[in-house]
Amino acid sequence: MPTGTAEQRLVGLADLVVEAARKKRDPEIEIPVRALSNVAFNPKKRIIEMKDATQARSLFNLGMARKFMQTMLVADALAVLQREKLTTSLREIYYRTKHTLRDSTENTFDAQDESDPIIEDIEVALAALREELQVAAEGRGSIVGNVVLVDDGDAIDCTRAGKSGHTVPSIVEEPGIRIRKCAADFVLLVEKATQFNRLSEDKFWKRHNCVLVTGNGQPPRGVRRLCRRIHDEWKKPVYVLVDNDPWGYYIYSVVKQGSINLAFESQRMAIPDAKFIGLSSYDPEKHKLPRNVGIRLTDKDVSRAKEILAYPWFQKKEWQREIRNMLASGLKFELDALANKDFRYLTTDYLPRKLKERDWLD
Amino acid sequence: MSIRAPSKRAPAAPARPRSTGGQRPVPPAKAAVVPVASPADSGGNGGVIPPAPPRPTAQMLAGKQREISVSEFFAKNRHLLGFDSHRKALLTAVKEAVDNSLDACEEGRILPEIEVKIEVANGNGEPPKGQLPIPGRPSASQAERFIVTVTDNGPGIVPDQIAKIFAKLLYGSKFHRLRMSRGQQGIGISAAGLYGHLTTGKPVRVTSRYSEKKPAKYVEIFIDTARNEPRVIANRDVEWDRPHGTRVSIELEGRYQKGRTSVDEFLEQAAIANPHARIVYLNPEGQRTLFDRQVEELPPSPREIRPHPYGIELGVLLKMMQSTKSHWIGGFLCSDFSRVSPKVAQEICQKAGLDPRAKVRTVHGDAAERLYRAIQNTKIMNPPTDCLSPIGEKAVLAGLYKQIKGDFYTAVTRAPAVYRGNPFVIEVGLAYGTGQAALAESAVEQEEAVPVAEGEAKEKAGEVSLARLMRFANRVPLLYQPGACAITKAAVDTAWRNYGVSQSRGALPQGPLVIFVHMASVWVPFTSESKEAIADYDEIRKEIRLALNEAGRRLSAFVRRRERAQSEFKRRNVFEAYIEEVAAACKRLKKGRLNEEDLKQRLQSIAKKLTGGERTDELLGKGESAGPVAPESTIIVTPDGVEGAVPAPSVPPESVPPPAEAKPIPEKGARHAHRHR
């Protein structure tokens, strides 16, 4: 693995090309394979780790030449960010590196979906986090509750962030962001904005002394990283509240063990102690949700659930029971379905009962 | 209700005694007898049963029965001759006139020079009721009346014949002989005149001159449809600047539209199939197009032949036996048919159980049928083929090369074959490619490499077009009814994928391909009188397929060679472009501390080593070695130039200043100079 600062590692790619040219060899960049086949669950650390399978990307291979050229262009753009201490988005990187090749109508990139994977390739090849590379994902996510952050020198008290909460920045690293204080008892990570808003409006965080965080669906890196830091630095347990469907299970597992695509970041992102608080496939029964607020599992849901059932990190007995129970019922339930009982059912009944009964999965 | 005496003549016809001989108008086949429905009850009577009308007697019916002239028949059934829509009518009129002109020139052994002029006629279109006609002429695309004028430099027509040729159906020189020509029945031009007269009331105007010593004759005529006879309105001597030739002018209802099945397309294709002709076209918009002559020799004059015994039917045999000048059956067979030697005649007679010395007139009934069957069972040599005049590979190639932009051209003329006793020849030509190869190198410099926005690139790649099929019969383009034609069937049935061209099931191949197919025969079996499609005889289809296969094999060699070269070329090109980007990015990464040129050169030398080095140079025609030689009757266009049987260069077929005087005939040797470079 290359070492040194992010900039040094990026310049290393240019050295590699020069060296190959000098030795009359085809320049090659080793890029770790980002696929299920190249990740392993580390039962000791309880996170997903990347194995060492790599793929050589070479310039003089017709199938890879274009990607090689793109990799060098993106590396160049990323080095500029480092030198000028700028942060930008994936989309701006795409526009910055797009131009038409000389004497042709061929563009260096045709669409952003070509440049995004190249950035991920560089992340894994150089073992550099995207935050290190100063490329931000969309800022998506909110936080409210008993925690004080310092963002670029300004203290942000999340108990005074109103109903909508403070926006979670996409890069949550020292020294830009510090967590000055956290007096809450736990962190509740909510999948959807609707439930976040409900809990925030009802001041759930005040009554139960917690921090509420949402990522609006699959939580972005900033949200995951922030939860991890509160968990690490202030030793607060993290609970995850998601829909009862295969997608919800997967969101939970990404928070807990890391994602397959960017497994190398698990070390800094994953929260192996995170708990799954709901919705569980047993909740509709426990909370007497009528069958008619369920949604039939689609074929895609079923096959996704079966995949999840096979992941090594879902092999605990309780988890196998949980997923099989959903498959057996043939139904999925959204968090929103709790409103069928009462608008405030989530705040007044569901979560207090869960916390009281310590009814969660690990 | 009165009983009229049967009358063979329309009441309007002037009552004069019928002349005999030459004026007998109607061939037996077309003289149909049409019974007319009884003029019975017209409408109900409100529940009251009307008294039963008297049952028509045979005499009453006879009063309604009369002969129909062929002109009347076609006046009513104009679609049979290609006058079903306005657009098609204009095309058919041009086509018939041009066919006649080309036939006349070739028979007179004159290199054809033909001028086709289409004008918008005055007094166009019917004004809406109660409104005055719109003053002035409408635009070409709006007009409904046109004047078609076709002028040739042919041998001219003797004054007595002018009226009959242009205003009498089924009158002509071509029906009764077995010899290849464009016209066959003697219907076409008269039918065009008839259609013009029916739709506009204007006569056909003909100017013709057959000798420099005689003045030109100007005649205005139309067909008296009831009698199928010409009616001459004007007939006078006029001044004409041409020593010989014919001009025919027809005013008719039509519609002028460009594109497929248009007059423009017809003339373009006619020029390809008749590279020895010089055609000037003035379209109704006033544009002048010149299709210049590509070949300075007339096609050899086809010889007239006697019928081949295999090609006749029993009825025809009986008729021939009636009219023969021979006395004995053996002599009849030898002298009235081709390829029947006395020995073969004896064999036939033996098989039929007849004495070769039997009198021809005594053979009928059973014996004639035995004779007919004996003919079918005797092996007889194929008919002679000098009655055919194929275009020839060289001329097909020249025509295609001139009119179609492409990178590859080839032509195949098959040996003559026979269907139903009629000899025929199939010729096939292919033009492939976009004509870009010649431009490729300069294009790199010229094309300002227009940047492509997101999403644009994919659209361009998605375009597929089918090959264009050009069908010809005796050098005449066939534009309508492709689906009914044996040529289309053969082209669709050919497995083009074997030749490196993609093709969907049951369709023409895809890609930048023009397929030219020509059938030359003494008698082309059309599916209808309007001569739009060739009937599907197995023998014909097989010949077309074999010719397409041969041409396809040559195409495949070209396509494969080019693909290989292109893929290497593309690889290297890709690397060249990418190397530049990579080197520049490296230099920027190194904050400018890099010898960019040196890096580029090093990378390029690696690229060259990895992409076949000198071998690719050779395939691309770079470097020292000469390019591959084009096979027989093939032209290949490469960035470096043109290989193969390239015709002499001449003026492009766009609008060109007034025609140059007689073109010098290029030396024969010069044309072949390129072939073995």
Notes on the protein architecture:
The complex is a heterodimer of chains A (362) and B (677). Chain A has helices at 6-22, 65-84, 90-97, 112-125, 193-201, 204-207, 221-234, 246-257, 266-269, 283-286, 299-310, 317-329, 345-357, and strands spanning 28-32, 39-42, 47-50, 54-58, 88-89, 135-136, 142-145, 147-151, 154-157, 166-167, 177-182, 186-190, 210-214, 238-241, 275-278, 295-296, 331-332. Chain A has 362 residues and is an alpha/beta fold. Chain A folds into 2 domains: 6-26 and 61-136, Arc Repressor Mutant, subunit A, CATH 1.10.10.10; 142-357, Dna Topoisomerase Vi A Subunit, Chain: A, domain 2, CATH 3.40.1360.10. In chain A, a hairpin with a 2-residue loop joins strand 8 (147-151) and strand 9. Chain B has 677 residues and is of the alpha+beta class. Among the domains of chain B are: 75-125 and 137-257, 2-Layer Sandwich (Heat Shock Protein 90); 309-377, Helicase, Ruva Protein, domain 3 (Orthogonal Bundle). In chain B, the strands form 2 sheets. In chain B, strands 5-4-3-6-2-1-7-8 form an 8-stranded mixed beta sheet. In chain B, strands 9, 10, 11, 12, 13, 14, 15 and 16 form an 8-stranded mixed beta sheet that branches. Chain B is globular and about 115 Å long. Mean pLDDT of chain B is 77; it is low at 1-46, 438-448, 620-629 and 649-677. The chains are: A alpha/beta (362), B alpha+beta (677). The A-B interface holds A 10-11, 13-15, 17-18, 21-22, 24-27, 59-60, 62, 65-66, 68-69, 72-73, 75-76, 79-80, 99-108, 110-111 and B 444, 449-452, 454-455, 457, 571, 574-575, 577-582, 585-590, 594, 599, 602-603, 605-607, 609-610.
